[in-house]
Amino acid sequence: MLRTEAALHNTFWAVLASRSPTPFEAAFVCNLSRELSYLDPPVPVHVMLDETELVRNRKQSVLSIWRGYTSGLVAIHAVTQVDIDTAFPSYRERRGRLGRDKFNRSVMWRMHEYALLTLRHLRRVPPAHHYWVSEADVFFKGAVGKWVEHVQERFPNEDVLPLSRDRTLDHWPHREDEQDAQPALLRRSRHSWFTCSEHVRRFSRLLLDKLFALLSLDVYVWGEAFAPSLCHNDRQLHCSKKTHAPYEGWPNDTWVWYRNGSWGGDVQ
Question: Which residues contact 73 (CB under 8 A, 6 or more apart)?
C-alpha cells in the first residue's frame, strides 16, 4: 500500500468548542486523546475553537485557556470568520443573512461541518478516511478506544454515522432552511429529509468532499439535516439504516452522554 493510501485509511477526531473549557472538559479531551493514541493506527484528537462565537476581547484568552489546560497534548485550532470566508467565498457574500441567527449564534453552531471543512481546506488537519466530530460537552464513560475500534470494524462503509437519526417532521423548526437546497440535494423521485443529532457523528472523506462542493455552490441546510439528507439521497453514499447503530453488538459498559441526556442507556 502506498504511503498516501495508508494515510487516508486513518481516522481523525475533532472536538468542536465555542467557549472556555471547564477543568473537567479539558481533562476529558486529554484523556480521549490518550485513549485514541493507543489504537493502531492512532487516532489524533484536535480541538476546533469557533472564534466566531466569541467577542473580540475574549478570543485570545479562551485560546490560551484551552492551550493551558491541555498542556500541548492536543492540537488547538482557532477557526475565525476570515478562515470561513477564505474557504467559502459564497458564504462571505451572504453573511448578512446567515452570519448570525435569531438566537445570535454563529453559522458553525448551526452546522458543525463548517469548522472541519474549513480546517481541511486550509490543510490544518491531517487527511483521513473517517472524521469524527463531537461537541466539547460530550463525554464518554468506559473503554472509548475499544468502542471506536468496534465501530470502525463493524461499520467501515457508512458515510455518515450518527448516534441517532430521525426522519424530518413537517413542524421541524428549521424547515425553511431546506427550501433552497431541495433541487441540489433531493434528486430521487421518492425522497425524504432526515435529521440526526450533531453531538457525536462520524463522516467519511467522500461525504465531506460532497458537502464542501455543495457549500461552495451556496447550498446550505441546517446541520442536523444536511449530512444525513445528502447521504440518503446520493447514490454514491451509504448510510446505516438502524438507529443507535454504533451500539449494536457492544456491551453496555461504554456510554456516550451529553449534559442531561444519554444514548445507549441511563448515565449513573
Answer: 30, 33, 34
